[in-house]
Amino acid sequence: MALAALGTYASGFDIARVSVGSTTVRIDCDAAHTYARDAFGSRIRPVVRSSTCGKDYSALKGTKPGTVGDLVEAIRAGGPTVLNWGPTTETALAVR
User: What whole-number distance in Å separates Cα of residue 72 and Cα of residue 91?
Assistant: First the structure.
């Protein structure tokens, strides 16, 4: 629902990236990414798979997985506005 709503208003935003699957809950990460890309990718670009998807949060301590590192660099360069809808694993790691 969140991506459908965002897709409706996407032209009003400068979207750098939508990261799908930022959760430590065991999900089919590839299926979640494929669904989001196929369903909403024509209106929201780019849709990427979260590098934290399905991983144990405690095992991520002290690491900066790909999509988290990208977020940290963007913040240091002047910062994007970050909208979280659902789990906030990536943002939590970036803040940490």
Answer: 9
Length of the chain: 96
Are 49 and 29 within 8 A, CB to CB?
Answer: yes
Give the integer Cα–Cα distance in Å for 21 and 2. Answer: 13
Q: Tell me: the pLDDT tens digits for 1-21?
A: 777 888 888 888 888 888 877
**How far apart are alpha carbons 24 and 76 in whole angstroms?**
25
Give 14's DSSP letter.
Answer: -
Q: Residue 29: count other Cβ atoms within 10 Å of its Cβ.
A: 18
* Token pair recorded at residue 61: 């301590």
Grouping H, G, I as helix, E, B as strand and the rest as coil, residue 4 is helix
The pLDDT tens digits of the residues spanning 34-93 come to: 888 898 888 888 888 877 777 776 776 777 777 788 888 888 888 777 777 766 777 777
What is the three-class DSSP state of 19? strand
